[in-house]
Amino acid sequence: MPRTRVVVGLSGGVDSSVSAFLLKEQGYDVVGLFMKNWEDDPECRSREDLVDAIAVSDVLGIDMEVVNFAEEYRDRVFRYFLEEYQAGRTPNPDVLCNSEIKFRAFLDYAVNLGATQIATGHYAQLRETEGRFELLRGLDRHKDQSYFLYRLNQEQLSRTLFPVGHLKKPQVRELARQAGLATATKKDSTGICFIGERPFREFLERYLPRHPGPMETPEGRCVGKHQGLAFYTLGQRQGLGIGGSGDAWFVAGKDLAQNRLIVVQGHEHPLLYRQQVTAQQLSWISGQTPNPEPAYQAKNRYRQEDSPCRLLSADAQTLHLIFDKPQWAVTPGQSTVLYQGEVCLGGGILT
Predict the structure, then answer these.
(1) 5-185 placed in CATH 3.40.50.620
(2) By Cβ atoms counted within 10 A, which residue in 87, 206, 260, 347 is the most buried?
(3) Active-site residue (options: 193, 222, 309, 344)
(4) 211 CB contacts (<8 Å, ≥6 apart)?
(5) Which CATH fold would you assign to the domain 273-350?
(6) pLDDT tens digit sequence for 176-208
(7) Is 193 a catalytic site residue?
(8) Active site residue 97
């Protein structure tokens, strides 16, 4: 009887490497697929990652293909990324990359290779209940990536495996070491490839023009000059260049009509907090809007603890949440993601 074919997204990192290893150990017909999503930047780690992915496939004895999704990435992800920054918002391209590239373009390609399922190294888990798939947090709460996957739908989840979702990171590295994989000690990548670890504003200025304007307090006192509203995000402290004594300065708002950047002093300034949030461009994993009941938690950015909240209202277009405690630096363009215990329900883009 032919073995079930699974195509694994081999990124050149330890998590996807161990995912391929575990699936092969479980008897699947494993094929590795390295996705090239960006071509504009010679500093991108793509070349190094490709070499590592090839090395892993050689050790595991699996076939590997390289596919170029740069055009799809530019059209479906990067264009949106720039449009959002130009509109004064702060997008999360990793969310869109997952729903449009890793679990759509990649999935379509894998099906053409004869695969019934795809697998990635995401720290998330799946549970099937009465024919419906639920997305669960990864066991390693420090690495849980369900936040980035909230836009996946039932069709995508039904064809997906997360082989390392039930493991903690040290266990994954130990498995890689035991399997003789060169990625066992490789440093985790941070951020998106096309930005890397360079200064963010430096990267963005390659694609967006400067539109300098005043930095002002909420009372209208000018305290500095900004280089363009697109280059700043709510809650930002670094890079403001405001001198003087007293508490640190933070970005608290953007006045697009008058090209003003609103700044305040002190991490606890009330203008940095919001208790109610609104989101649009909603996506629910079950395909249905959640019921308005109180036992929910949500996070408004990835590196944030869950916060208890209630649904004030939710329909097909708009979600209104009220949190038990005010939330710091709620940023338009980021995602608010709703949870019920360990289950990720979905979410939307903060407005």
Answers:
(1) yes
(2) 347
(3) 193
(4) 227, 228, 229, 230, 259
(5) Elongation Factor Tu (Ef-tu); domain 3 (2.40.30)
(6) 999 999 999 999 876 665 555 566 788 888 999
(7) yes
(8) yes
